[in-house]
Design goal:
Elements lengths: L10 H6 L35 H11 L25
């Protein structure tokens, strides 16, 4: 929302994610100099970016995990013999 009360087409969606959070103080005005800026690149909850799944898929292809779980991974003992301990 801009100082004159108008809302730009994409601005409504873009600004809705952090609207009303006490972290930001006055949230009715767009402020480029605001210092509090927690990182939330793809949104959260109802404000999740519609392209988030595609972005994560593409990142997964570009940067594969350093370790891959082997297909034949199995316990060396019977599952019943595993002793559970509190951590």
């Amino acid at each position: 929302m801009f100082a004159d009360g108008s809302v730009g087409g994409w601005g409504r969606t873009c600004c809705a994610n952090s609207y009303g959070r006490p972290t930001y103080g006055v949230t009715d005005m767009f402020d480029f100099n605001r210092l509090q800026n927690p990182h939330l690149p793809l949104g959260q909850g109802p404000h999740l970016c519609v392209g988030a799944a595609l972005a994560r898929l593409k990142l997964g292809r570009a940067f594969p995990p350093p370790f891959v779980r082997p297909e034949d991974l199995a316990l060396a003992i019977a599952a019943e013999d595993v002793v559970y301990t509190l951590s």
